[in-house]
């Protein structure tokens, strides 16, 4: 259990500054997810918190205690990486118990903790197996189990699911959500590229851009009220549609944004266009429509889309769901402006 405070954290590699003054508070027991484009500094920020990189400037504190100079092993953290790095010649049990053995914990306690973690992660039937006799998802659960038994104050995950196939990712994502509920006192920080992981796991998401924090909020806050074009375009799948000034004149915005589920295909709709392509996902469909913007806009329709490429259709936005952005990409409000026609 730790409350984490980052104050004006900066990190340079030689002359290159990659973390450029980050202020952030992560509450005790919170699940914080870092997202952002490749190279924005997510992993570096996590490694600074872990103590795997030195902080160039600023203060990192856990529960008010400054961590900057403290060795990683003394911080009470456990980290799970993309590669599981299990010892190939050791059983699952020994892999999980090894750290405690090194720390001199007695056998009965090691046994108890490993069994408890194995139970939590449904690994009990595999305790005597070697890593190579496990699936990728099971191996990653062993890596998580090995971290749990250390009873960390802070749990750090760096893209732990990115080596797994789609089905295993979902299953292991659910395990991690359950784990957070059962370890509700443990602060967790999780780096991912995956929208769904970020939206489903996070209490709050931090969107990083080029070494600075762009916005921090709950998944729904970021989805519904992004404070910039950048966050609007980054959070949500499919991506928010952006329409330029030609479409937004009466809204007095430089750009307007509208999510795929807030567009209606209807006769006499406001924008005319032609269908480029439809994707059927089973429960719903994405229809791509060329209305004269630089990229086709995407419309979500329930069920199976029956529209054919080349068909002309008309679309209307649900007006109060529009997002308006100024010339600098800052959000300036939702819906039509009062008094606009
Ligand atoms: N040890 C290092 N030496 C020099 N530059 C580094 C080092 N580690 C990271 N960088 C640089 O710092 C920047 C941020 O890297 P980082 O790995 O934190 O990004 P990221 O957001 O995690 O990216 P990705 O999503 O691709 O993993 C990048 O420009 C990277 O090249």
Automatic annotation (TrEMBL):
Gene3D superfamilies: 2.40.50.100, Nucleic acid-binding proteins (2.40.50.140), P-loop containing nucleotide triphosphate hydrolases (3.40.50.300). It is found in: Cell inner membrane. It is a peripheral membrane protein. Residues 4-235 form the ABC transporter domain. Its main location: membrane. One of its GO terms (molecular function) is ATP binding. Its EC number is 3.6.3.-. PROSITE patterns: ABC_TRANSPORTER_1, ABC_TRANSPORTER_2. It holds the Pfam family ABC_tran. It is an enzyme of class 3 (hydrolase). GO terms for cellular component: ATP-binding cassette (ABC) transporter complex, substrate-binding subunit-containing; maltose transport complex. SUPFAM superfamilies: MOP-like (SSF50331), P-loop containing nucleoside triphosphate hydrolases (SSF52540). Keywords: ATP-binding, Cell inner membrane, Cell membrane, Hydrolase, Membrane, Nucleotide-binding, Sugar transport, Transport. It comes from the Bacteria. Belongs to the ABC transporter superfamily. This is Multiple sugar transport system ATP-binding protein. It comes from Rhizobium rosettiformans.
